[in-house]
């Protein structure tokens, strides 16, 4: 296996997935949801598996102090390229670190952050427990943990809309699927990840959908009003039953404060 397993996927992710209507909607909707929970800048943010900094760069522009941690040098190179187009003050607020998410605590020198993000990473792991535990350890008391994961409850929708009926029937009891980039992915549930957060000392605060309509539609970049699509997706993300049907979900937790008399 290549030392950088994501090198071949860096361009498809950055120039393809993130540049698509669906990718732009993801960034907008997650950003709007995050701002409901994050402390004011210049609070510190750790983006675990942050890749090309699509989610953390908008936060740096707002004044947050951002650390992007990713195991892929190719993805971090994409982040560096994007940072080169930013003003000096934004670039100074972003730090890039190469390391697996499970080693985030050691890679950041034991620093605890006001917010720890992990978006679209758990789906590529065989088990979520080690990474979720690391996220919790990197969060300061009262800090925010933000996780975006594949919704295991809606895996039958895509094959059904593709009229692959046998695949759709099997997907009702499946644990994962092959994603649009041809990589195997694993689904999670809000309840399952909430339990893991609690075990790490983080109490779930709220959860949202991310994609509903735009995930099932092939929307061309040219001629699509992305802002209008994003506005509809955001409304769907905060309402039942729509959020329950979303392709992926966004779970927010808050680390428990220190008990009276305890030391940090």
What brief labels describe this structure?
264 residues, alpha/beta, 7-stranded mixed sheet, two-stranded antiparallel sheet, globular
The largest beta-sheet arranges its strands as 3-2-1-4-5-9-8
Number of strands: 9
Going by helix content, strand content and strand pairing, the class is alpha/beta
Oligomeric form: single chain
N→C terminal distance = 41 Å
> Roughly how much helix do the residues carry, as a percent range?
25-40%
Individual helix count: 12
Overall 3D shape = globular
Content of β-strand: 15-25%
The major pleated sheet works out as: 7 strands, mixed
Average pLDDT rating: 92
N-to-C order of helices and strands? HHEHEHHEHEHEHHEEHEHHE
Kindly provide the radius of gyration, computed on alpha-carbon positions and rounded to a whole number of angstroms: 18 Å
Low-confidence stretches: none
Short description:
With 264 residues, this protein is an alpha/beta fold. The chain has helices spanning 10-17, 21-34, 56-61, 73-83, 88-92, 104-107, 129-137, 157-161, 165-171, 190-199, 213-216, 226-237, and strands at 44-48, 65-70, 94-98, 113-119, 139-150, 176-178, 184-186, 202-209, 248-255. Helix 3 (56-61) links the parallel strand 1 and strand 2 (65-70).
Description:
With 264 residues, the protein is α/β, with parallel strands linked by helices. It is 36% helix and 22% strand. A 7-stranded mixed sheet has the order 3-2-1-4-5-9-8, sandwiched between helices. Helix 7 links the parallel strand 4 and strand 5 (139-150). The protein is globular and about 55 Å long. The model has no long low-confidence stretch (mean pLDDT 92).
